[in-house]
UniProtKB/TrEMBL annotation:
Keyword Ribonucleoprotein: no
InterPro entries associated with the record: Glycosyltransferase_28 (IPR050426), UDP_glucos_trans (IPR002213)
MF terms in GO: UDP-glycosyltransferase activity
PANTHER family cross-referenced by the UniProt entry: STEROL 3-BETA-GLUCOSYLTRANSFERASE, STEROL 3-BETA-GLUCOSYLTRANSFERASE UGT80A2
Protein name as annotated: Glycosyltransferase family 1 protein
Signal peptide: none
Keywords: Transferase
SUPFAM superfamilies in alphabetical order: UDP-Glycosyltransferase/glycogen phosphorylase
Length: 508
């Protein structure tokens, strides 16, 4: 139980959590709000997001909280409709196709151009409906502090418009929240531009192109006709000025604090601004694997395991899955042929793009890994009951293959990253910079080849620096443990901010 923060006897503090429903953004809220109750059982917490989110809240906290449904279209659906309106090619996952193309002058420029639709994907009427709903919620709750997801454009617009004091809770890196504030305009020449996949620091011969991408992004956003039309409509209907995540970098309120789920030791070298508060990895609570899936725990205990999970947004075509399977098969054969070692196992959560079989005899995947499946050394499924964090903390995973969205170094596990887009490239860079793994597709990004991936996976498991990676992973996990639980740190900051506002209100 975390240390409790005392409350004044004459009233309860009230906090409103305001977020998009998409898991990449909402998970830090699901991780943090239980810590709020642990620190202060009397705090009154309200949760506002789109419909359908209540089961996720109930799954991590048994006690009731007050839920408010935001009226209007959720962000991901709005992005999909926006791309359809503007004839933007997109993937089955509703991402612009430019996000998954090999980085380069043309593709990176197109991806940067498509990113503006992520910030403001709404029509004028859609934006006005969501904004008005959030304004009503904020006024109804009348919280001492609002904690908002920094990508929730209608929420930011409402908070700026009402002049309400708020904080941001973000799963992003320190660099993402502070790069434009670094001295000597380092954002232009030192840190890789969005979608560039350049290494850090940016090689000197690529600095002109990096500067171009940064300036191109700023100009594209400023000239965005769709955004300006939404801004004009919203102002005419409500009198509010449209605000986006860009305002958090260039026009933030003086009192704003941005809480990020990482540590300086886990990020690119960066000067941390006073308003950016690194909390450490903010990870959802989950029961140990022995409770959530005892059978899986028993299976994992049979031998060292590679855990493959490319996230809910990354769906693999059959040929891409076969390339990954072929790399795994090569490494498994190499490891398992060595005498005196426990058989290497693979647990793969596979999200498919299209219809194909992973285990049926004669299928492409079965042709590659059929023998290993029949020996129960490989398990492939589109759904695993246990939470990913429970699997990683089981003590049996020796390597995690993921897309770069995990954002956690607290499990002492070596990693192979297969980034697909945007900040995922940054994660792959950090994994190599920190010495805990390899970028599995650097030369063929965002795709991978069986030969290239097999080499990187072999490096991680049996290469000359394999033991050094293992040791470094343990060291970074120790740093995370020493710094304390990220969700608890975030909750302490939120409660302190809330308390300060509450005291001021009580004194009026």
């Amino acid at each position: 139980m975390a240390e409790q923060v005392s409350a004044k006897p004459n009233g309860h503090r009230k906090i409103l959590l305001l977020t998009n429903i998409e898991h990449g953004e909402s998970n830090v809220f699901l991780a943090t709000f239980p810590a709020l109750f642990e620190l202060d059982p009397d705090v009154e917490v309200h949760f506002a997001t789109y419909g359908g989110f209540e089961p996720f809240v109930d799954a991590v906290w048994e006690q009731p909280i007050v839920f408010h449904e935001i009226k209007g279209i959720p962000a991901l659906r709005a992005v999909h409709e926006c791309m359809q309106r503007q004839n933007v090619s997109h993937t089955e996952n509703l991402l612009p196709k430019s996000f998954t193309m090999p980085p380069g002058l043309v593709n990176t420029s197109k991806a940067i151009d498509d990113t503006r639709r992520i910030f403001v994907p709404y029509t004028g009427p859609q934006m006005t409906e969501i904004f008005s709903s959030i304004v009503d919620i904020i006024k109804t709750v009348n919280a001492d502090l609002v904690v908002v997801n920094g990508l929730l454009t209608p929420g930011l617009t409402a908070l700026y418009h009402l002049g309400v004091r708020f904080a941001c809770l973000s799963p992003n890196s320190i660099k993402d929240c502070s790069a434009p504030l670094q001295p000597h305009a380092a954002v232009l020449w030192k840190y890789p531009a969005l979608f560039s996949a350049f290494s850090y620091p940016v090689p000197w011969h690529l600095i002109p192109l990096n500067i171009y991408f940064c300036i191109y992004g700023a100009i594209t956003f400023a000239r965005d006709k769709e955004r300006r039309a939404v801004m004009k409509y919203l102002q005419a209907e409500t009198g509010a000025q449209l605000r986006t995540p860009i305002d958090l970098l260039r026009n933030r309120p003086p009192s704003l604090k941005i809480l990020v789920g990482t540590l300086p030791e886990l990020d690119f070298p960066v000067i941390v601004p006073d308003h950016v508060l690194p909390c450490g990895p903010i990870i959802r609570q989950a029961p140990p694997l022995s409770e959530s899936d005892p059978a899986l725990q028993t299976w994992l205990a049979k031998g060292p395991t590679i855990y493959i999970n490319l996230g809910s947004m990354c769906r693999l075509l059959e040929d891409d899955a076969v390339e990954l399977a072929s790399a795994v098969q090569v490494v498994m054969k190499k490891v398992n042929e060595q005498p005196g070692t426990s058989p290497l196992q693979v647990l793969w959560k596979l999200k498919k793009a299209g219809e194909y079989s992973a285990s049926e005899a004669g299928s492409k995947l079965h042709n590659v890994l059929g023998k290993e499946m029949e020996a129960d050394l490989v398990r492939i499924s589109d759904w695993i009951q246990a939470e990913p964090i429970s699997i990683l903390r089981s003590g049996h995973v020796v390597c995690s293959i993921h897309h770069g969205g995990a954002n956690s170094f607290s499990e002492a596990i070596r990693q192979v990253v297969l980034p697909q887009w945007t900040d995922c490239y940054d994660y792959a860079q950090r994994v190599e910079m920190l010495g805990v793994g390899r970028w599995g597709s650097r030369d063929t990004k965002p795709k991978w080849t069986s030969q290239g991936l097999a080499r990187k996976l072999s490096d991680v498991l049996q290469g000359e620096t394999s033991e050094a990676m293992k040791k470094r992973a343990v060291e970074l996990a120790g740093v995370c443990k020493e710094k304390g639980n990220g969700a608890v740190h975030a909750a302490k900051i939120i409660l302190a901010e809330c308390h300060e506002n509450w005291v001021k209100a009580e004194g009026k």
